[in-house]
Amino acid sequence: MTDIVVEYKKLKELCSNKLQEAGVPADHADIVANVLVHADSRGVSSHGVLRTEHYVKRVKEGGINVNPNFSIKESGPVTAIFNGDDGFGHVVSKHAMDHAIMLAQKNGVGMVGVINSSHCGALSYFVNQAAQTNLIGMAMTHTDKLVVPFGGAEPFFGTNPIAYGFPAKKNKPIILDMATSNAALGKILHAREKGKEIPKDWGVDKNGNPSSNPNDVVSLLPFGGPKGYGLAMVVDILSGIMTGSAFGPHINPMYGDYNKMRKLGHFYCVINPAMFTDQTTFLESIDDMIHEIHKIQPVEGFNRVMVPGEPEQLREEESIQNGVSIPETVYEYLTQITTVS
Length: 341
Fold this sequence. Notes:
The protein contains ten helices and eleven strands.
C-alpha cells in the first residue's frame, strides 16, 4: 500500500469538507479535522484522517449527533460536568478543556468530567491546549472492551489512553500521550490498511494467542502486564464511573452498532503551577530538565535522548513544512465526490 503526501492545510480542508458533506456543521467539522491532522502530522496515523470514513458512517447511521446542545454544570469551585449531548468527542473535548483551563486560571485547578460524548481522537491535542497557556494538562478517556486484563483470556477494559502536557519557557511542551495497551487499536487498523505485520506483543487472536498478523488480532495486550492493566482501571474509574458513565464491557462499541450513541466519558484536569511555586521558576526548571536529558549520552542506535512527545513534535514541524503522509486509499476516499441521491 503506497502513501501520498498532502499539504498540511489542504488535508485539513479535505477532511473537513468530507465531514460537512455528511451534515456536520462547518465549525465542528473544522475542529475534528484539526485534531485528526494533528495526529497524522505527528506520525500517529492510527488517530488521523483514516478515521474520517468511520465517523461519516456513524453520522449517517445516527450514532453521532451533528447538532448537539452542549451544557456545563459547575459542581464546585474547581469542578464541572460537561454534557456533550452525543456530539463529536473532538469538539466536546476541546470545549471541556477550555472550561478546565478557565477554572485553573481562576482557582488554581480545573477538573471537568465529560458525559455523553464519542471518540475524541488524540489526547495530545487537548493537553497541548493547557500547555500553550503555561498550565499543566491531563486528559483521559475510556473505550469499549478490547484489552485482556493481566492473566485473562477475554477483553474487559478498552485501550483507555491517558495524556499529560507540561509547559516550558523556551522549549516546546513535554507531551506524554499513551494508551494503556501495548498499542492503540488504530495502529492495528493502520497496519491492516498498509498490509504490514505487527509486533507479537500488540494483540492476541480469538484463541488468546499473540499474533503478528493484524487481521487475526481480536484483542489487545496491556503494556507492562499488570501495570498497564492497573492504569486502564484507573482511567475507567475516573472517566467512566466517576462521571456516571458506563465502564469496561458495558460501553457501546466503536465498531458495530453504528446507530447507537456511545455515551463515552472523559476526564480533563488542568493545574496552574503558579499556585504552587513561582511560575517563571517552574517554566525555567522544565527547560533545565529538558536540557539535561538532552545531554545524556545515548546508547548505540540512538542519536540523542529525547523527552516524551519530542519525536512527534519534530515530525509535526516537518509535516507542516513538507506535507503529511497518508495512505493513498484514504486520500482517494477524502477526494471522492459524494453523490447525493
